């Protein structure tokens, strides 16, 4: 099925739980409740399981849109903003030192699979 109203998703979840998690009974109840004919489209077994699992994982029957790149960038900015700049500078310096020490210890062997442009 393509896009289904929230009402359908809620009904399917409730019917699935009330039927003792029976897929065929859930489909039959859906068909009766929404007056779908014998050959009409009802949610498939996979769709029912997907909706039920999504609800159990997220607590919502509504599909959530993935965050946009702009939204992700803004969320990262909000997380970073309160970090003390001096602390951040020290952490970055420590990271650079550790990478340099690793390079020296490995004698540059960790770079063997990198093609350098000449």
What does this molecule look like?
This protein is 60% helix and 0% strand. It has helices at residues 6-18, 23-33, 45-58, 69-80, 85-105. The chain has 118 residues and is an all-alpha fold. The model has no long low-confidence stretch (mean pLDDT 84).
Distance between the termini: 55 Å
From the alpha carbons, calculate the radius of gyration and give it in angstroms.
Answer: 27 Å
Helical fraction equals 55-70%
List SSEs in N-to-C order: HHHHH
Q: What fraction of residues sit in β-strands? A: under 5%
Tell me the number of helical segments per DSSP (H or I, 4 or more residues long): 5
Spatial shape? elongated
Structural class: mainly alpha
Average residue-wise pLDDT: 84
Uncertain runs are: none
How many β-strand runs? 0
Biggest β-sheet: count, sense, barrel?
A: none
Q: How many independent structural domains? A: 2
């Amino acid at each position: 099925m393509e896009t289904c109203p929230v009402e359908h998703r809620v009904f399917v979840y409730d019917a699935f739980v009330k039927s003792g998690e029976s897929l065929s009974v859930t489909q039959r109840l859906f068909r009766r409740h929404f007056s779908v004919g014998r050959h009409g489209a009802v949610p498939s077994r996979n769709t029912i399981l997907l909706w039920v699992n999504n609800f159990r994982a997220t607590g919502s029957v509504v599909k959530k849109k993935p965050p946009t790149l702009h939204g992700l960038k803004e969320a990262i900015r909000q997380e970073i903003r309160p970090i003390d700049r001096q602390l951040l500078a020290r952490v970055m310096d420590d990271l650079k030192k550790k990478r340099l020490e690793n390079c020296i210890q490995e004698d540059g062997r960790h770079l063997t699979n990198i093609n350098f442009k000449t």
